[in-house]
Amino acid sequence: VLIFSKPGIRMKLRVLSDYPAIVLLFIWMLGPLVATIYYSLIRYNLLNPRIKGFAGIENYEFLLTDFVFTDSIYNSIQLLGSIIGITVVLGLLISYLLDQDLYGGRLLQLVIISPFFVMPTVSALIWKNLLMHPVNGYFTYLLSLFGLPPIDWFSDIPLGSIIIIVAWNWLPFAVLVFVTAQQSMSQEIKEASKMDGAGHIAFFFQIYLPHLGKAIGAVVMIQMIFHLNIFAEIFTTTTGGPGTQTTNLAFLVYRKALLDFDIGGASAGGIISIVFANIVAIFLLRMIAKNMNSD
């Protein structure tokens, strides 16, 4: 008892007691990654299990030379840039509008933020069957009022339709972050700008935007992490089509694994997705760190 009562011994025992949890966490984090790397280096097709053995970088070569992979990279970048651009720009404008003394402002905030709590699959089904349906959708009805022909959204502009659905789902998140960030702006700054005769446009660009710089960086970083893995909206509405027009990296991995049953190719796609996500993350972290240092 006296030995265990010494401070040094107690500290060592405390550290040793943490080891099992650390080891389990380490295995939980690295186990799937190691398994994915292993499967990406072998021939493993569920439809033809007799074809097996070490493939080396064969799965990677096949994937990188496939036009579907090129299309998926292009679509992923388009989805990423368009959704973030729409949500940030509209989020800033809406949050600035909500900062004004509007009648029913609290109720308006609740209405604007509510889409964020709708599950992606439910959101996609609502847009597909209620709003964008080429025959019975509300958009078709509104177009018919002006004598315009209906639009088959998921055939004519499939990627644009996915962008609209995801942006609608994530716009409330940007608004919520910006509304919260703008509350830290002192009332004296607002009153001083009014006394100096600054209009809405001057105040927005010279005071409002610089004040929300860090919030904008946080919104961009969080959305970029999530939007690299957009899947539910694509699966529910277009299933990656027409052709490969809405196939991104996440859907390509799904197609390889559960439609082509090519586990080796799907694992190679997963590793490439991880590398792509890390490149984007490093770029973002440097951009945000530079922004914070400049402040």
How would a textbook summarize the main sheet? none
Radius of gyration from the alpha-carbon trace, in angstroms = 25 Å
What is the strand content?
Answer: under 5%
Mean pLDDT across the residues is: 88
Q: Report the structural category.
A: mainly alpha
Terminal-residue CA separation: 55 Å
- Count of helical segments? 14
Order of helices and strands: HHHHHHHHHHHHHH
Give the overall shape: flat
Number of strands: 0
Give a brief outline of the structure.
The protein is built from 14 helices and no strands. With 295 residues, it is mostly helical.
What does this protein structure show overall?
With 295 residues, the chain is an all-alpha fold. Helices cover 73% and strands 0% of the residues. Helix 1 packs across helix 14 and helix 8 (158-182) packs antiparallel against helix 11 (213-227). The longest helix is centred in the N-terminal third of the chain and has 34 residues, at 7-40. The termini are far apart.
Features:
single chain, 14 helices, 73% helix, flat
